[in-house]
Amino acid sequence: MKSMNRPPESAFQTPSQERREKESTREKIERCLQSHVVDIKPKWFGDEKHRAMVGSNPVAAVESSIHRCDPPLHVPKLTIEKGKVSVLVGPNGAGKSTLLDAIMRRRHADFDSGSHGYSEGVHGKETLRISRLDQEELLQEVKDVSTKEVLEHVKEFFISQFPVDWEDWENTDPDTNEKNEAAKTRIETLLSQAVKLFDVNLFLDRKVSELSGGERTKLSLLMVLASEPDVLLLDEPTNHLDLESIAKLTGLFDSYKRAGVGIVNVSHVEWFLDMVGENTLEIGLKNGERTVTQSTSPHKTYKKREAPKELIREPIIWEKTPTKPTTGSIFEGGDSITVPNSPIKKAVLPSISAGDITVLSGQNGTGKTRLMEQFANPHSKIVHRSERVQTAYMPQLWPEEIMKGDITNFFHWVKEHCNPHSDVAPSRLQKELQRLEFGTGRKNILQQRFEEFSGGEQRLLWFAAASIIEGTDTLILDEPSNHMDEATMMKVVEAIRNFPGAVILSTHDLRLMEALEKNPGRTREGVGVRNIKLERTKDGRIEINPQTTSPLEDAKRTIEQSSKQAKRVKV
By residue range, what is the domain housing residue 454? Predict the structure, then answer.
């Protein structure tokens, strides 16, 4: 039988796909912005007595439901207030994205029963402008475009929405001209200031595909902040940001609040939510019903009333290690180290001592993760480890093949990176998880896909797996408390305190820093927590400098200075 000539791939494309390929960069960016920045005419739908209950808040709903999800999301009462920051919380899959879509009336989501409505914005437009951060969606079609070009098109797009014509006196309202002129100036000034504030000038010439996670978050933030929003919906605005950038974001919120903008945040960074959350929106799924509950209590107060479900009930217990040296240096770098694929060039690396807790601090892009990978690599020619040192490495991001595999696959991966010669079997992990009371009610846990567990659960699974593998005397932990509530984070603190060897970690979690400084563990009494900071010099080099201040003290000073800097930005 003769084989048929296969038509070109383009023959199978839909008309919409063909149109997208032909779109210019400007058109792609504008289309992305139009789906993430919507203008809604002020109007109330439903019972007038419900309207009296919510006042003139920009977005409100009473006794309403959203039927896009199953079961529907019931909204007894929801208000987004001018000049206030609300925190949206709830487990994965509860309906947070559905609620944000309904607020924007996009993707077939709406308050489709009961009462809801929109009021006038704070920028004097005829419509209420709602802008939403969803970084992967915003940037997915401009991967081959430079940061500078993206921002130029963003500025042009938003400025074009505020036309000014001082020549046509007959057809142009002078008041409109003045308002639009002021808006154009704000947009230009904001982008200029924000580029400097978030150090975007360091990657203006790089393509979006070449940016780190934190750099992509910064670019996405600038894209929506420049929109002249009346309401900001921010989905994970802290993703991959360092402590300094998160602090700048909190300061920027103060500027937007003063302007009267209402803000709703979704984030896994608990201390950030504690700092900014004035109201709390919680989506709960119980007895087959989804409900949005609004509290006027700050997030920090609200979460104290809500007893979180404990992911593990028993402490992590480390497998006893063979007798090894417990004093002296375990890592040496020399006077001139260069780490591949990182900004660390010809830097001096301080030695790391056995038994210490060492925090690596510093901004995004200074090379912390790459340096930790060298500590974890037993064959590294850059960082020299003492003989017989055995490390266990927790990365900030899991490899894709681990996310797609099951827990048995994950355990073998952890063992390979701790002690490939260990004969510990996956069945031992199952017994350990039963002891910890982890995943109670889950059947055949070793066969479950790793990605089905929450971010906090995944990191606890790593601790459970690493703890039963013999021989480990050094933990290398990149953001070990990511995606954890305070109760779960304290289980990690307890595990670190109980570990008898050295711990090298990177974190922007103030709660973790404070807990370890108060009590680093019985074997480290009187030693404290060491702070080694990666700092960028004026000529762009990275220096690795031991600090006299503690990680927590250094972090609090950074937050205070960065927040003050951001509050000066005009919005």
Answer: 329-567
pLDDT higher than 50, residue 1: no
Within-domain flag for 323: no
SS3 137: helix
Same domain assignment for residues 338 and 289: no
- Residues 556, 503: one domain? yes
* 322: number of Cβ within 10 Å: 9
Span 191-211, pLDDT tens digits: 999 999 999 998 999 999 998
In this structure, the answer to whether residues 243 and 335 fall within a common structural domain is: no
Exposed/middle/buried for residue 323 (C-beta within 10 Å: 0-12, 13-18, 19+): exposed
Looking from the CA of 520 toward its CB, the CA atoms found within 13 Å total 22
CA distance 261 to 348: 47
pTM: 0.84
Find the CATH number of the domain harbouring 41.
3.40.50.300
Strand pairing report for 59-66 and 113-118: antiparallel
Burial class of residue 507, CB neighbours in 10 A (0-12, 13-18, 19+): buried
Give the distance from CA 523 to its chain's centroid.
34
Please report the pLDDT score of residue 440 as a whole number.
75
Q: Which residues contact 2 (CB under 8 A, 6 or more apart)?
A: none
Contacts of residue 311, Cβ cutoff 8 Å, sequence gap at least 6: 438, 456, 457, 460, 488, 491
Mark whether 283 and 380 lie in a shared domain. no
Task: Give the Å distances, CA to CA, from 90 to 165, 171, 457, 491.
Answer: 48, 51, 15, 21
Q: Within a domain: residue 1?
A: no
The model's pLDDT over 147-186, given as tens digits with 9 standing for 90+, comes to: 999 999 999 999 999 888 776 666 677 777 888 888 899 9
Tell which of 270, 305, 340 closes a domain: 305
Residues 39, 151 within the same domain: yes
* CB-CB contact of 237 with 100 (8 Å): no
- The total number of structural domains in the chain stands at 2
